[in-house]
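FAQ: What does the model actually see?

It sees only this:
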Amino acid sequence: MFQERWERAYFFVEVKNSPVCLICKQTLSVSKEYNLRRHYETNHSKNFVWYTEKMRDEKLNELKKGLKVLQHLSSNANKISDAAVKCSYVISEKIARAAKPFTDGEFIKECLLSAAEIMCPEQKQAFANISLTGNTVAQRVKDMAENLQDKLREKVKSFVAFSIAVDESTYINNTSQLIIFIRGVDENFYVTEELLDMVPVTDPTSESGLFLDVEKSLEKFNVDWSKLVSVTTDGAPAMVSDNTGLVAKLKSKVKMFRKDAELKCVHCIIHQEMFCTKRLKLEHVMDVVISTVNWIRSRGSNHRQFSALLSELDVQYGNLLYYTKVRWLSRGTVLKRFFEMIKEIDLFMSSKGKFLPQLSSEDWLRDLAFLVDITDHLNTLNISLQRRSQVVTQMYDSICSFLEKLSLWETHLAVNNLAHFPALKSVSRNKSDGLTYIAKIVELKTEFQKRFFDFKHYENELTLFSSPFSINIDSVSEELQMEVIELQCNTVLKTKYDDLGIPEFYKYLGKSYPQYRNHCAKILSMFGSTYLCEQVFSVMKLSKTKFRSQLKDTRLNSVLHIATRNRRPDIDILVQKKRCQVSGSKSKE
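And it is asked to produce this:
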């Protein structure tokens, strides 16, 4: 134990259970008088032995005050250091979320210093202490990505059911990347939907290679394979081929852990909807539209003159849009603008001596108008399917709703009712114009029914989740019938269901329905599309451009983990592990 008399005898005080020399500020490891006396006699006795009686007490108090001032300054320095490190992390996170180069941190720091010099010059040094070199930002991004992955790893332990969405894309330098998303549900029906991993793929056509990549990524997070409910893909052969595809291998893997398991395979609903649109086959319209737009926009003089004509005529739009096949909504927006500017386009093309007889053909104009209307309806459906965090039942309901609309339009066109086809109605001249397009509606309807026939196998399960109080009990599996009957007779839960709807209702479902809760957790965990993967590919192309082609996959992976998550990293915890590193020489990725 530290003795108070040692303060006056050897000029030592106790700080945090350790003796500290007031003269040289050295800390000793053990509070023993022999150690303190030896330190004092060896280092300080010659200069302090003549301090006696009252003078010694005054010197002791003076040294104590000096230590307190030093501790206060040290505390403030640590606070300033922690603030600088935290700013470094916050700015690095924003750089990653915006998919900007790491070296942009240096430019941001220059801006901060310039602003500080004008606004608060006395605080300029505090801003100078923020480290934002390229290497520092890269390390900060890595730290935050690892923190997010650790949090996800902990969250995975609480999942009662989870599903994955898998998609592959090739981008700059012909590099192929496999994106894996996970969607899990815990016992409180809280949904976690996050990027699990990004894996470089050497051979995208290799089924065994894809399976090993997915297996390795899942096992990095210590998942319980028996809780895997479904896998959603883009329908590529390497993903869904019988016996050797990724889905088939995952089914075999899951059965190893639970023999009665039935791993569901979902073909991305958005991709299927896009395949259905190809059944319209009105290429004679699209070819003219695309070639005309390209002829006007790809030639500088034509483009300038056309823009000047639109400005002179005071047209609503100032330009035509390019058609991009890979963009889901491109066809509809291009067609709609072309249709609304048809007179101006015809006038301009005629002035250039490039006559297009289609633009004055009534039959062609009706086909264009019909394609504008039906594509607009398809785009509305597509947009409704793109929202994040949707339950698969909501997406399937949108498809069923569109099928009902097709049936309605088929009936309306039979009597030439064009209420839902405004563009066609504006160019229609005969009472039989609507009859021409019934075959197209029927063909589109047939394609939708064919493409989404697989969902018929799961329809009762989906309905049990989305409409538990109205489902016919005979269509419910036998192991769930007793619990569902009890649920349907519970008026309190029925009121809660009417007030909240799904999926919020299931957070209030008590543990009296264990099997039904498990069924609902499985449905809630399912992905309806690979839309999240497509979003990641967009971020990936922003991050790794031709100007950043040397960005390593490990760093790109860190950026994607931050940019795609709503969850924030625990920056305060990371700051505790770091100290301010003042920016030195400029470094580049």
